[in-house]
Amino acid sequence: IGFFAHVAQAQPIDLDTLSEYLTGLGSVQTTFTQINGDGSVSTGVFQLRRPGRMRFEYDPPDEALIVAGAGIIAIVDKALGTSNQYALRRTPLKLLLARRVDLTDTNAVVDHYESDGLTVVTAQDPKMPEIGSMDLVFATAPLQLKQWRIRDETGGETLVLLDAFDTDVDLPLRMFNIRDIVSQYQD
After folding, report:
1. In what order do the strands lie in the sheet with 53-58?
2. What is the mean pLDDT of residues 76-84?
């Protein structure tokens, strides 16, 4: 063996395993830290009820609430009593909230690698790459989604860091009912 011995590189978690993991997530809750494109930082509670539902409840002084359900994402400003709604299918988050996550679709995954003991998958909708992409970062032992970075259609980036998941939570459907939530905060 020569002076420069070949160093074996760690392999990323395979895409089948990651797809099964994401599809199998039921209801989870954790705290999060969000780093916005402008460098500002927000914290709060993240809740996921698969398929199709997620909720970001921001800590004060932020007055935001983001809820996904019924194919819509609503961003609610609780202080102003206003909301903006978007079709979930027009955002990279649809990859995470799909009924069946399939990262083995080679047209959806644009990168897949291991870095510092973490597996990173960059995915986008192959039919609508213009809506942006999403980097999903997984810890290996135990397997857990640790963060994601969304690049939207304008080039903006948002990084969300997740703490340990509580998987023993009851998340009632009403927590994701956008019509009721929006009416609760409107003047």
Report:
1. 82-87, 72-77, 64-69, 53-58, 41-49, 27-35, 157-162, 143-152, 132-140, 118-124, 109-115
2. 90
Q: Report the distance separating Cα 108 and Cα 19, nearest Å.
A: 12
For 70, how many CA atoms within 13 A lie in the half-sphere containing its CB?
11
- Residues 110, 23: Cα–Cα separation, whole Å: 20
Burial of 76 (0-12, 13-18, 19+ CB in 10 A): buried
Q: How many CB atoms within 10 Å of residue 166?
A: 12
The amino acid occupying position 80 is L
Structure-block tokens of residue 165 = 């998941």
β-pairing, 64-69 vs 53-58, is antiparallel
Whole-number Å distance between alpha carbons of 32 and 63: 16
Q: Indicate if the alpha-carbon torsion angle 40, 160, 9, 106 is positive or negative.
A: negative
Which 8-state DSSP code applies to residue 155?
Answer: S
Model pLDDT for residues 20-32, shown as the tens digit of each residue: 999 999 999 999 9
Is the overall model pTM greater than 0.85, yes or no?
Answer: yes
Interstrand relation of 118-124 and 132-140 (parallel, antiparallel or unpaired): antiparallel
Site of tokens 């192959």: 126
